[in-house]
Design a protein that fits this description.
104 residues; four-stranded antiparallel sheet; mainly beta; single chain; globular; 45% strand
Length: 104
Amino acid sequence: MSKHTYDMGLVGNCAYLALIKQDTSVSWLCWPRFDSSFVFGPLLDTRKGGEFSIKPAEDADYRTRQYYLENTNVLCTEIENAEGRYRVTDFAPRFAQYDRHYKP
């Protein structure tokens, strides 16, 4: 595990990217390519940017920890509160197909 020092983690696969905040919310996601309009963009416009997250109830007191699995771009965000804890894992897959790297 390698802990990063920023407020957000980055996942991508050379076709799109997403910025994931430490509370699990997607702060930026351009889809299906880098030059596409954003699907989630509260980083630039909180009113029109939309939201996707897997957070505890708004009134819950919770702690977070975000890290990458070692030598990967797999981002793990752990949430812990009085009720328990859970982990959200974000990644953008690429795999070899027909002698090239496929980006779904």
